[in-house]
Amino acid sequence: MEEDSHLEGGENNREIEIAPAIIAVHPTQDSVAVAVGSDLRVFDLRTDCGVSLVDDSVEPFHKDSVRAIRYSANGKLFVSAGDDKLVKIWSTDTWRCISSVSSEKRVSAVSISNDGLYVCFADKFGVVWVVDIHDLDVNGALSNRKAAPLLAHYCSIITRLEFSPDGCFIVSADRDFKIRVSVFPKKPLEGAHEIQSFCLGHTQFVSSLAFICSKDLPQGFLLSGSGDSTVRLWDITSGSLLDTCEVGSQAALSESDGSEESCCAVTDLCAIQDSNLVAVAIQGLQGIILLGCDFSSKTLSVAKVVSITEENFIPTSMGSSSAGELLWFVTGISKLRDADHKSLARLKVVSGLRKKGHPESPDQHKPVVLGDEEIPGSQKLLEKLQGSLSIDQSVFSAAAEAIKTAMCNLLIKKQYPTESREWRKRTRNDRKAKQ
Amino acid sequence: MPESEANPTFSKSTGLPRKRFYRARAHSNPLSDSHFPVPVSPRHVDYTAHFPELFPSSDQVDSSSKRIQFADVGCGFGGLLISLATLFPETLMVGMELRDKVTEYVKERILALRVTNPGQYRNVSVFRTNSMKYIPNYFEKGQLSKMFFLFPDPHFKEKNHRRRVISPHLLDEYAYVLQVGGIVYTITDVEELGEWMKACLEQHPMFESLTPEELEADPVVKLLSTATEEGQKVARNGGQTFQAMYRRIACSS
Fold it and tell me: Which GO terms label this protein's molecular function in UniProt (chain B) (predicted)?
């Protein structure tokens, strides 16, 4: 009886969770990748055509939602990982999968060390694993790797992993409001035992991390976005909170319908390279907020709010290249309730972010939302990455609710009613995977 | 004392809380999210609430004031803390306990002891918290000089080993809150757990074993097996205990 009502509710372990669309941009903008559910789509901007991925591994491509994608700093590698418990490493020259790493649990975050020698990923237990890819032959045969445990956030789901610009530290953020800065050792396979600091101050899950640097401050500061509607600035060496920016209130100002505070979670951050700007995606805002970081006073302030007025567009993920010329973002979801449409992905690009001329000049920031024809790769890119060229307004509105739910599920711990908790305990499998 | 007369959970003669009204199961699931307030950061720990005689007003707490130095992780009914409080009267110490009723008992016990022994027990208090998740919220880097893990839950099944309070990953966090030279004290009556804890500490690059001479010289070591209810029960039953004492050292890389 208990089990019937449980299955009815749909809160079933085996139900595929809907996933928000994510985007990654190649460091020199050679290509752009979008993942919607288990579908990984790449568009090569050099050859101006879509990419067909090649995967000869035992478990080719992804069978379940991709949760994290990343390019290496030198642009030679691309990593994708997610709910199918696989971390796949791809060569960006041939777009072949050159390594498939198995994880015991679903993967929630991925990062590549700046020197391109290590891939780190976090699983559902809160353990961060490291894979040595020193001798991975970019053009060679498939070589599967085993991961070693690096560090762990006890029973917390890690939402982001970031390496510091100087490569000395690895930063991990979790759903239990914590950010841990650990020394990335010379022998990572033996574990990152030395904790440099904890950046504590957020009062809700931490959803995103980004580093912002300047020529005078190459090690930069850490930025974090959270469900508490703030973006915070940190000095990772000491863990001290330098400044807090209440972006939630900014979003409320722009929205005419006055959404409640609970919607205003910061969902993604993207630092614009070679500038003092960081783009913030926040629930409830159709568009992005650009924050400016003042390195001398160590403060954050709102520089501009870029609205996307024509469409119901709330970004789920953002990316930009090292040149920082364009900011790419995507909104989308892997599954819609409506049977007609399997998934949704919509891309938009903002340009004009970099400062030109005198830094003190007031109207430096003239960000412009590019029209579909002005985007690099334009129609072909949109067709490949979005799955279709144009999207019906009605589909968008249907998706908006689903996207909000998906983001919530990702970031907030599900509260199960007591009856279903007992049922879940019975079916839970904590056993180690057989070697 | 009017309060104890009206309150049957307190003994009339000693003024101390009666344990039988605060009984709880020995095991508590550290994975389930109980709802208790957690300080946003160590700066937010309310010293005035816990040590009112020493921090009469919140304004007094600044970087030069005393900080908590001893932490008893999983303090149970507070036996060790009570003994340590008088042995180290100038040191601030706290117990961390997950179970609600048990934390209440320790709180009441300390309050009652402060009344019956004026001037004493002002330096000891208890937090109701999940120390496996939130230790960095309570203590700054290198703040603690001693950490105690007395008779922790063995979590016998292999699939539950990751819930053990001493584990390779959690030792990173304990190393973070301990100062260099700080000491971790562990004791258990379960041999397999004793070996596990010793192995975890031995393999961790930031801990080294105390020498037999140092163990001999440390007044705290004897208290491990005698000061707590658990320890006394083991002694009564003629059981064996397994101890491991390790010092926090600088990272060897």
Answer: tRNA (guanine(46)-N7)-methyltransferase activity; tRNA binding
Say how many C-beta atoms besides its own lie within 10 A of residue A177's C-beta. 22
Query: In terms of Cα–Cα distance, which of A160, A165, A306 is closest to A225?
Result: A160
Which residue of B36, B162, B200 to mutate against A (max A Cβ within 10 Å)? B162
Q: Which of A186, A193, A197 sits opposite B204 (nearest CB)?
A: A193
Cβ-Cβ contacts under 8 Å, B141 against chain A: 195, 197-198, 239
Q: How many CB pairs under 8 A join A and B?
A: 72
In this complex, do B31 and A176 lie within 8 Å of one another by their Cβ atoms? no
- CB-based contact, B29 to chain A, within 8 Å: no
Instruction: List the single residue in B133, B137, B172 with the smallest CB-CB distance to A151.
Output: B172
Helix (H), strand (E), coil (C) string for chain A = CHHHHHHHHCCCCCCCCCCECEEEECCCCCEEEEEECCEEEEEECCCCEECCCECCCCCCCCCCCEEEEEECCCCCEEEEEECCCEEEEEECCCCEEEEEEECCCCEEEEEECCCCCEEEEEECCCEEEEEECCCCCCCCCCCCECCEEEEECCCCCEEEEEECCCCCEEEEEECCCCEEEEECCCCHHHCCCCEEEECCCCCCCEEEEEEECCCCCCCCEEEEEECCCCEEEEECCCCEEEEEECHHHHHHHHCCCCCCHHHCCEEEEEECCCCCEEEEEECCCCEEEEEEEECCCCEEEEEEEEECCCCCCCCCEEEECCCCCEEEEEEEECCCCCCCCCCEEEEEEEECCCCCCCCCCHHHCCCEECCCCCCCCHHHHHHHHHCCCCCCHHHHHHHHHHHHHHHHHHHCCCCCCHHHHHHHHHHCCCCCCCC
Q: Which residues of A touch B172 (CB under 8 A)?
A: 151-152, 182, 191-195
Closest-CA distance, B172 to chain A, in angstroms, reads: 5
| Tens digits of pLDDT across chain A (435 residues) | 333 333 333 333 334 567 899 999 999 999 999 999 999 999 999 999 899 999 988 888 999 999 999 999 999 999 999 999 999 999 999 999 999 999 999 999 999 999 999 999 999 999 999 999 988 877 767 778 889 999 999 989 999 999 999 999 999 999 999 999 999 999 999 999 999 999 999 999 999 999 999 888 888 999 999 999 999 999 999 999 999 999 988 766 555 444 444 458 899 999 998 889 999 999 888 889 999 999 999 999 998 888 887 677 888 899 998 887 899 999 888 876 655 567 888 889 998 887 554 455 555 557 888 888 888 888 888 888 888 777 777 777 777 777 777 777 777 766 666 677 677 777 666 555 444
- Chain B positions in Cβ-Cβ contact with residue A430 (cut-off 8 Å): 159-160, 162
- Reference A105, options A172, A29, A13, A30; nearest CA is A13
Partner B contacted by A203 (CB < 8 A): yes
Q: Residue A159 in contact with residue A109, Cβ under 8 Å?
A: yes
